[in-house]
Amino acid sequence: MLLGCIADDFTGASDLANTLARAGMATTQFVGVPPDASPDTCEAGVVALKTRSIPADEAVAQSLAALRWLRAQGCRQFLFKYCSTFDSTPAGNIGPVALALLDALNAPGAFVCPVFPATGRTLYMGHLFVGDRLLSESGMQRHPLTPMTDPDIRRWLGRQIEGEAGLVRHDAVRRGSAAIGEAWRDEVAAGRRLVVVDAITDDDLRAIGHAARGHALITGGSGIALGLPENFRAQGLLSGERLAFEPLLGPAAVLSGSCSSMSLRQVDDYRQDHPSLAVSPDALLSGTLTVETALAFARKHLADAPLIYSSADPDSVARAQAAHGRDRAAQAVEAFFGELAAQLIQAGVTRLAVGGGETSGAVVGALSLRQLAIGPEIDPGVPVLSACPALAGPQGIRLALKSGNFGTPDFYRKALRQMSHAAPHP
Ligand SMILES: Nc1ncnc2c1ncn2[C@@H]1O[C@H](COP(=O)(O)OP(=O)(O)O)[C@@H](O)[C@H]1O
Ligand SMILES: O=C(O)[C@@H](O)C(=O)COP(=O)(O)O
User: Fold this and answer.
1) 350 backbone dihedrals φ, ψ, rounded to 5°
2) What atom of ligand 1 comes closest to residue 145's alpha carbon?
3) Closest to 32 measured CA to CA, from 47, 42, 16
4) CATH value at residue 373
5) Are residues 296 and 202 in the same domain?
6) Residue 176: Cβ-neighbour burial (10 angstroms; 0-12, 13-18, 19+)
7) Domain co-membership, 196 together with 291
8) Does ligand 2 come within 6 angstroms of the Cβ of 381?
9) Domain assignment of residue 240, yes or no
């Protein structure tokens, strides 16, 4: 294994694995830190953790355990993947994890770059944009777990670490990798070890990737990985082999636990012509809706690919959080989706699309998945995945783990279609 990646959530991990696979690295997504060695054929390994919204010291400990495993697999470079909307709180976890990884690698500093132009995330003068809005006006300021109320990534990171974060401005990025490297070294020499770097286009990201060729650690969204495979290819280290994707027909279901604005549109779109069941923390915590009732509903409509969702507008989420507490409400919903997913697979579902990073983590955990193979891309940042849970038949299942904000409004139809059709890697 050449490139070892640590992702702070599950949709993020498959987003990154998708980028690396498309850029020509033989990539595997691992669920948690594997107990044994990786397959020899794996050139990039992405360890998916669920550390985005847990206490910072636990996130650090889990990330260091992933680093130890990746080092033992022979990796030469490491990438810490977080969200392209920099999902975190003033208490962490991006800053503390990045610094702990730097210390463990004895490395002087690392880029910080959440940019993902294909989904509208760009960074200028250290400020993060989603489309034509600042991050703090993009809807992310009302995220249920990590409300992003400040678009200045240096300032946000500054709350999570001691000292200041650095900045490589876009004028240096535009001048190419030598200028980026020079600006980065100046920042690190001044004691600013976490260096935010502006980027607006994929070409900017490729130049940053080239500038990072000798760095032990790189941090960012999946876009930061765009230029990295080329560094390995230039050294003749890539095999150029790709795993074939095997489509699979069979009963399908959609689970949406994301409350992002795009998820709400996707749920509305899919509900138009599919059976759907809404769940809420209230219903789950009072016992008026249970996994058994939801399963009975799904079984009844299994031929029509039913949708079960807790996705709700910000006011409903705020009311549920005020009534039950933020974490209790989230845990009730996540536990529900995890258990329901396991029951659905047992009931014969072979195609499952999940909306939301934490929600996906709960589902993948409940299915006890170990490894995910990367298939074709459905929409930017979301590939079809193949997995073999013990609960499923010999052909396994096809899965999509969709970040809340990713995908077009008709994402779920496309996802289920693509799982059952052969589509070549572009
Ligand atoms: N109706 C709801 N009320 C309160 N919290 C909810 C509701 N529906 C989902 N949640 C919680 O909100 C969080 C959404 O996060 P996530 O699944 O990561 O979505 P996203 O990808 O949009 O961030 C999850 O922890 C989920 O359990
Ligand atoms: O970088 C991104 O935006 C995604 O890869 C990601 O991490 C998504 O997280 P969620 O929005 O919580 O699914």
Assistant:
1) -115, -10
2) 13
3) 47
4) 3.40.980.20
5) no
6) middle
7) no
8) yes
9) no
Instruction: Tell me: do 191 and 327 sit in the same domain.
Output: no
Same domain? For 219 and 267 the reply is no
**What is the domain range of residue 268?**
252-419
Give ipTM to 2 decimals.
0.97
**Quick check: CB of 83 below 6 Å from ligand 2?**
yes
> Do both 49 and 193 map to the same domain?
yes
From first to last of its 426 residues, what are the pLDDT tens digits of the chain?
A: 999 999 999 999 999 999 999 999 999 999 999 999 887 789 999 999 999 999 999 999 999 999 999 999 999 999 999 999 999 999 999 999 999 999 999 999 999 999 999 999 999 999 999 999 999 999 999 998 999 999 999 999 999 999 999 999 999 999 999 999 999 999 999 999 999 999 999 999 999 999 999 999 999 999 999 999 999 999 999 998 777 789 999 999 999 999 999 999 999 999 999 999 999 999 999 999 999 999 999 999 999 999 999 999 999 999 999 999 999 999 999 999 999 999 999 999 999 999 999 999 999 999 999 999 999 999 999 999 999 988 888 899 999 999 999 999 999 999 999 999 865 444
145 C-alpha to ligand 1 centroid (Å): 8
* Residues belonging to the chain: 426
**Ligand number with the minimum distance to the CA of 257:** 1
Q: How far is the CA of 329 from the centre of ligand 2 (A)?
A: 20
Question: CB under 8 Å, gap of 24 or more: what pairs does 99-104 form?
Answer: 99/161, 99/193, 99/194, 100/60, 100/63, 100/64, 101/6, 101/63, 101/64, 101/67, 101/217, 102/193, 102/216, 102/217, 104/64, 104/67
Residue closest by Cα to atom 8 of ligand 2? 403
Q: How many domains does the chain have?
A: 2
pTM above 0.95, yes or no: no
Do 229 and 320 sit in the same domain of this protein? no
- φ and ψ at residue 348, rounded to 5 degrees: 110, 0
